[in-house]
Amino acid sequence: MIVVHHLNNSRSQRVLWLLEELGLEYEIKRYERDAKTMLAPASLRAVHPLGKSPVVTDGSLTLAESGAIVEYLVERYGNGKFAPVPGTPERLRYTYWLHYAEGSAMPPLLLKLVFDRIANGPVPFFVKPVAKAISHRVLTTFVNPQIELHLAFMETELEKTRWFAGNEFSAADIQLSFPLEAAAARAGLNASRPKLMAYLDRIHARPAYQRALERGGEYALLS
Question: Rounded CA gap, 197 and 185, in Å?
Answer without folding.
Answer: 12
